[in-house]
Amino acid sequence: MYSIVIPYRPRQAFLPLHRRQQRFAVGVAHRRAGKTVACINELIRGALTSTRPQPRFAYIAPLFVQAKDIAWEYLKQYSRAIDGVKFHESELRVDYPNGGRVRLYGADNPERLRGLYLDGVILDEYAQMSPRLWAEVVRPILADRQGWAIFIGTPMGRNAFCQLYEQAQTDPSWFTFCLKASATGILPLDELAAARRSMTDDQYDQEFECSFQAAVQGAYYGDIINRLEQQGALCGLSYHPDQPVHTAWDLGLNDSTAIWLYQQYGGGLAMIDYLEASGAGLDYYVSQLAAKPYHYGEHLLPHDAAVRELGTGRSRIETLQHMGVKGRIVAKLSLQDGINAVRLLLPQCRFDRTRCARGIEALRQYRRDWDDKGQTFRVNPLHDWASHAADAFRYLAVGWRDRTRPQPPMGKTQGEYNPFGW
């Protein structure tokens, strides 16, 4: 036996995290607090001290390129002091002489994690990740080894990260912590004062004072969703069988497909359900819709649904029609015109808070891309997990705006029941 000394001296603020006894932890930390360094060293220690055979640990960032930019150099820096360590640049992986391993991943490619096992995992900037990543991918791969998990990040509105943090605070089996810049003493007071002068109150409160109440910077619809929530428009909604249910789709190829399900009420729309999945064919979504107790009206599809695929020679709208789903291609508008159509429609909508939870959160988080080099927002949106629901709702808004024809007849067709009403 011999000791290994890692050249890491924890900041006082992170000592409670390193000394915790709980299996799961969630922490909120201000910018430049040193959370990535602390978490990388937590993984290294886990990989070196685990008594299980072939220990496996992972760091997950919102995007794979972020994991490389943010954490890879730290992982190499603090691992170099270990004799026999091996670095695998192409895989962002470090192998240790005891058989332990730490590897970096991006939440933008969750399929890469499926089928693995993990003894410990860090989910960094969890506010920017889809909540499905934890529930459907990461949590199951911790089960057989009883692995631990740490969620950490800076707030981005009252999203799934906020909900997780608030729930964990009432659960003694979870460790929680909050590091505000005004309390940690990590950043000099004059630097904080300069940052406050150059930022809006919301920006400063979110980035340095860990406020979940601050508006998401660059969000297209966040303020509207927050107003709808204050007005009670995010609530429990009932399906009215005397009215058709319409759908609006964002069709993914190697990505997620998202579908909003809605009914008309008065002068507005009731969003009664939401469906999203990835890695499935059109038959899966058709079967999911058919299994719901709804009578369907029209199905709004993006313009690229009319493009014929090379493999089959058939477009996706033709494939859907063959399955009993007759769609309507919405007008092809510019991205900004579509976003404006959503802004006009959203105040007229109500949402079922439970069935549409993921779609609501995606609309709240959908935001402009940030240019680190130019220190400004780019013209186009950030493409992440929130894009699919937002794109489907954009097609809904465009299709609803241009809708002039009457509703198609519902019920039976040619003497047989058709769940889609065609």
CATH fold field value of the largest domain: Rossmann fold
Distance between the termini: 73 Å
Strand count: 19
Kindly estimate the percentage of residues that lie in beta strands according to DSSP: 15-25%
Query: Number of helix segments?
Result: 14
Q: Summarize model confidence as the mean pLDDT.
A: 89
What does the radius of gyration come to?
A: 24 Å
Low-confidence stretches: 404-422
- The CATH superfamily of the largest domain is known as P-loop containing nucleotide triphosphate hydrolases
Please give the share of residues in helix. 25-40%
**Describe the biggest sheet?**
8 strands, mixed
Specify the structural class: alpha/beta
Q: Assign the CATH architecture of the largest domain.
A: 3-Layer(aba) Sandwich
- Name the strands of the widest sheet in spatial order: 3-4-5-2-6-7-1-8
- The dominant shape is globular
Q: How many separate structural domains?
A: 2
> What is the highest CATH level, the class of the largest domain?
Alpha Beta
